[in-house]
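Recap quiz, item 2
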Amino acid sequence: MRIKTKKLALLGMCCAAAMILSYVESFISFGVPGLKVGLPNIVMVFLLYRLGWKETAAVSLLRCVLTSLLFGTVMSLAYSIAGAVLSLTVMTLLKKSDKFSEVGVSIAGGITHNAGQIAVAIAVTGVEEIAYYMPVLAVGGTLAGLVIGVAGAMIIKRLKKVNI
Amino acid sequence: MDKKKLLHDLILIAVCLFVSLALWAVVALSKEKGELVVVTVNGEEYARYPLSEDREEIIVSENGKNVLVIKDGYADMTDATCPDGLCVRQHRINESGESLVCLPNKVTVTVVGGDGVDIIG
């Protein structure tokens, strides 16, 4: 596949932005493991709307691998990839259905991201009680998705005139 | 914004919040004070400690170490070798079903009720 240089540069920039956001996010803690704002998802929502799911998936997976290499462990890679794959799949499907705005798509992404991480956590540790975190994480994911969706929609709107 | 999409968004938010808050309420109401903690490493049971006596244990796993402190009927992870330190940042626990999870070290500490009753299921 031939990628235009401009697009390649843009994707690289988005990946870097997502990595910085996930680094910044690592300082924000709510006392519940896995509960995050999901700042890198702003980049993913933007990419999903401006370019498409393939580019978003590439940037998202690269982001997971690089942040895990830099700040995390092999295990954190498994968690973030599970969350990323699940949320991206759901977000792509919801966007294609054309029934929800960026905010709705982002909320679904936030919740499924947390669900994916919980599923991996249960599979790895074998402790089913971790599922008790799901309601807390679902509320958190809804609110986080709301904030991210609004922010993402703003960015999409403002960068509409920028030619990609 | 498209009005129809806004409506769908609002329905989505309402449904998500309602379902998760309802589940949360069910979990919160079914909680009761636990009597001991079960420590697992790599999914296998590592040890059981009663919450009634104060102690400090170092949980050694192949991935690292976690320091578990039991004090005043609460279990708390006070130190760990994992890079993210999320388990240390979790609040102390004492109700059955609550757990401390250290994903990098694959260590979990779960509170269970007395009498050897398993709370799963």
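The two ends of chain B are 45 Å apart (CA to CA).
The beta strands of chain B are 36-41, 44-50, 55-61, 64-71, 74-80, 99-102, 107-112.
End of item.
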